[in-house]
Specification:
The chain is α+β, with helices and mostly antiparallel strands and about 190 residues long. Helix content is about 30%, strand content about 35%. It is built from 3 helices and 7 strands, in the order βαββαββββα. Strands 1-7-6-5-4-3-2 form a 7-stranded antiparallel β-sheet. A hairpin with a 4-residue loop joins strand 4 and strand 5. It is elongated.
């Protein structure tokens, strides 16, 4: 098993990040063209805790390394199952995802959290702490060298995608702030 971990601080409030999170794979994000669709399977609010639980299926078109395809077969389309929990009272978004494609060969279990950065407490300067952990395990029997090679290649790809994902999400956050700001200005102008 290989582990990928990442932390990052977004210069946006938790409210902005948790709202924009639902637009992460929209046209504003030019860093995620490999995501072809995001389908919401279920969404419900727990009446006791107020936690919003959402299940989504994310479809990606991304080429696998040629040596993996020649060895294991498969296609360039893959599916990821994601369950997210948004707790407004705790100001925490937790997203857990796992691969469905090639899951008999490779297990990828990712957990992402967004929560306020408590070191930035002045109004207008709110920031959001992002943490990402992924456990990547090749399940191909006793071939240790092949298993290690698959895990290393997967961690490298995961790392590249994580970097691009952060860059793309920054663009979504920037656009969201601008669009919502413009809408607030229109509302204020209409009230005068």
């Amino acid at each position: 098993m290989k582990v990928f971990s990442s932390e990052y601080t977004f210069d946006y409030s938790w409210e902005e990040v948790s709202t924009a999170n639902w637009r992460k794979y929209c046209p504003w994000n030019d860093k995620s063209p490999h995501v072809s669709s995001v389908d919401t399977l279920s969404r419900e609010v727990d009446p006791v805790t107020g936690i919003l639980r959402t299940e989504r299926l994310i479809t990606c078109n991304q080429s696998a390394p040629a040596w993996v395809v020649s060895l294991l077969g498969g296609s360039n389309t893959s599916h990821v199952y994601e369950t997210s929990y948004v707790s407004p009272s705790e100001k925490r978004v937790t997203m857990c995802s796992t691969n469905l494609t090639w899951s008999n060969i490779l297990s990828v279990r990712e957990t992402v959290t967004y929560q306020p950065d408590l070191t930035a407490s002045s109004p207008g300067q709110e920031r959001t702490q992002f943490t990402q952990d992924a456990k990547i395990t090749a399940l191909c029997g006793g071939w240790q060298k092949i298993r290690t090679k698959i895990e290393e290649a997967s961690v490298e790809r995961f790392s590249e995608n994580a970097r691009r994902g952060r860059e793309g999400f920054e663009a979504v956050l920037e656009m969201s702030r601008r669009v919502f700001g413009e809408e607030k200005e229109r509302e204020r102008a209409g009230m005068r």
